[in-house]
Amino acid sequence: MADGADLTYVVSLEEVTWGLVLIAVTMMIHAIAMPATLAACAAFGRRSPAGGSFFGGVRVLLLGSAMIATTHLLEVIVWGGFFYAGGAFPTASSAYYYALLQYTTVGSGLSLPDRWRLLGGMIAMAGLLTFAWSTAVLLTLAGRFQAERLKQIETGLRNRESNRSRQPDARGR
Predict the structure, then answer these.
(1) Each residue of 63-79: pLDDT tens digit?
(2) Could you say which of 113, 118, 161, 163 is the most buried, measured as most Cβ atoms within 10 Å of its Cβ?
(3) What is the pLDDT of residue 12?
């Protein structure tokens, strides 16, 4: 074969089991972090002196985005740590680099040893599942932000119309 793939490769139960365990750990981390992100953002929005302002809302979105990104990086560390501890890469740095690129489905020129090569696809599955969940959380935060902004805009327009109707016209009426 042109790409050098080994046609005698056999998937092992150990490899599948570790992949399922790592996906489960990834999902558990997400199950803790995503509700925590929503709760932290709600609390931050209530406590922020500019919580109802445009910039207060943007700060809430930035906090949520930072918490989501940190969660994904933690999940990559779990996978990279497994790859390093399992001897798939000679350095922790290369293991984390590979894990990040596979988790985000970017891919890389690095590859896992035959013993673990199925995990390259399984980490991408974990990344797809968690990115979908993170997208839902970010959409929730963005929806709250947009609803609040729309309410502020509508209130501002009503106030302007009300002020105009109270002002006397050119004849003093």
Answers:
(1) 999 999 999 999 999 99
(2) 118
(3) 86
In a domain, 41, yes or no: yes
What's the structural domain count of the chain?
A: 1
The region, left, alpha or beta by phi > 0 then psi within -120 to 50, assigned to residue 172 is left
Range of the domain at 26: 13-163
73 assigned to some structural domain: yes
CA dihedral 108, 111, 116, 119 (to 10 degrees): 10
What is the number of residues in the chain? 173
The answer on pLDDT for 45 being more than 70 is: yes
CA distance 141 to 38: 8
Cβ neighbors of 45 (< 8 A, separation 6 or more) are 51, 56, 57, 60, 144
Distances (CA, A) of 20 to 33, 84, 146, 155: 20, 18, 38, 51
How confident is the model over 136-146, as a mean pLDDT? 93
Look up the pTM and report it: 0.81
Residue 3 covered by a domain: no
